[in-house]
Amino acid sequence: MPFGTLPIAKPLGKTLNQITENFIRLDFVLNCTTKYRIMNLKLRSRVACKLETVQARFDEDLFRYLLPPGAALIQYDGSKKGDIVHLKLPVAGDWVSEITEHGRTEQGSYFIDEGRQLPFPLKRWKHRHVLHRDGDHTIIEDDMHFSSGNRVLDLLLYPALFLAFLPRVWQYKAYFNNLSSAS
């Protein structure tokens, strides 16, 4: 087990995994190449849609569906290198990310957004969105790395970001299940 990994799903037993078909992995790692401690949060969802459908619908409509209450989407260029996504968050303010990398294979695709303007107290943000083929299903993985530049503050931010992004596990399922039942 890597340093800092908390196997959340394992102690809860297979029943929870079988019911939710989700896996939540929480990691933190020390990145020695920077002055910041890098925290890592990884969430995975398995949706009942083929990879091609999920890839085609990973778009502005999905992004709006995933927005937290009170947030506004100011700009959404897409998920290709150079695209910009700009949010206005309640209380926290502006969050601007740039897509810095994207790619696609027969078995999946990914894109990475990195924070260019982040709300206090974040100083670094890198979010890798990965789609994996799983038979007639797709696994959606959100792999987020972040830092405030302060170890104590990072540990306090971790549960807040976890709770902010955890609903995506169920939101992805609901969104793509609605697509499946509509077709």
Tell me what the structure shows.
The chain has 183 residues and is an alpha+beta fold. It has a domain at 9-74 and 122-182: Alpha-D-Glucose-1,6-Bisphosphate, Chain A, domain 4 (2-Layer Sandwich), CATH 3.30.530. The protein is 30% helix and 40% strand. The chain contains six helices and eight strands. An eight-stranded antiparallel β-sheet has the order 1-2-8-7-6-5-4-3. A hairpin with a 7-residue loop joins strand 3 and strand 4 (84-89). The radius of gyration is 16 Å and the shape is globular. The termini are far apart. Mean pLDDT is 83; it is low at 1-35.
Nutshell version of this structure?
By secondary structure, the chain is of the alpha+beta class. It is 30% helix and 40% strand.
How would the blueprint of this fold be written?
Elements (H helix, E strand, L loop, with lengths): L8 H4 L1 H7 L2 E7 L8 E10 L3 H6 L3 H7 L5 E5 L7 E6 L3 E13 L2 E10 L6 E11 L2 E11 L3 H15 L1 H16 L1
Antiparallel strand pairs: 1-2, 2-8, 3-4, 4-5, 5-6, 6-7, 7-8
Give the rounded overall mean pLDDT: 83
Widest sheet, order of strands: 1-2-8-7-6-5-4-3
Overall helicity: 25-40%
Determine the strand fraction and express it as a percent band.
35-45%
Characterize the biggest β-sheet: 8 strands, antiparallel
CATH-derived architecture of the domain at 9-74 and 122-182: 2-Layer Sandwich
The outline comes out as globular
What are the segments in which pLDDT stays under 50 over at least 5 consecutive residues? 1-35
Written as H for each helix and E for each strand, in order along the chain, the element string is: HHEEHHEEEEEEHH
Radius of gyration: 16 Å
Query: How many helical elements?
Result: 6
Q: Helix/strand-derived class?
A: alpha+beta
Total strands: the figure is 8
Just give the CATH class of the domain at 9-74 and 122-182. Alpha Beta
CATH third-level topology of the domain at 9-74 and 122-182: Alpha-D-Glucose-1,6-Bisphosphate, Chain A, domain 4
